[in-house]
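ok so I'm stuck.
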Amino acid sequence: MQEFQRRGIALYYQVESYIRDKIMSNEWPSGYKLLSEPELAKELNVSRSTIRQAISDLADSGLLIRKQGLGTFVAESIYEDDFISNYLPDEFGKKHTLLSKRTVPSSLMLSERLQLSMGMSLYEIRRARMLKNEEVPAIIETSYLESARFPQLLDHDLTGEVKLYSLLRVHYHVQMSSQNTLIEPTVLKPDEAKILHCKVGQPVLLLVRTCYDAAGKPFITTKILVRPDKCRISISTKY
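replied:
not stuck anymore, here's the structure
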């Protein structure tokens, strides 16, 4: 029987961590049906209210799914990889939905990242990306590029399985040679929460990726919002 501390860390949080570990280790794989709340409470030697709180929090974060009359199940598709160097290979899904495309003036942050003067014209391309065959987006990508360098870019098809980097390489002969990624936590705004089917204010990962061409000049910056229940980052270092 699993033993939990009775003082210090809240019991429901300990149960939540226990269930999360089972999911992340794949001991409870996608589609796995959990025991009922009374059964779990007996199994873990805690109250039903503790189980209910833990399951509620994990369902809100997207790790668990409650199905009326059927029970509680582990949600589908959690992607884990060296996210920084290998940004979602095709086998994990490459379907995109175009959310918006427009021309905007460069802000201070974008000007610094793209080494441009403030106010210069940029293309802003906002897309949602799905994992595998899922229809609910796991990622929101907002990319910024200098419009003068990539004329008529917004006229291209930017939906479905179109890769932005491939489009830049084929039509504009720009090859990525290196990239820099900043990772920080943030919370979802109302429009982002609606797209990702999450709660407003839910914590998410924000990756700001800037890519450089063969001459070492930055040519694209992308803000990447990642649902934490769908993707995990692992970083490998060789010595």
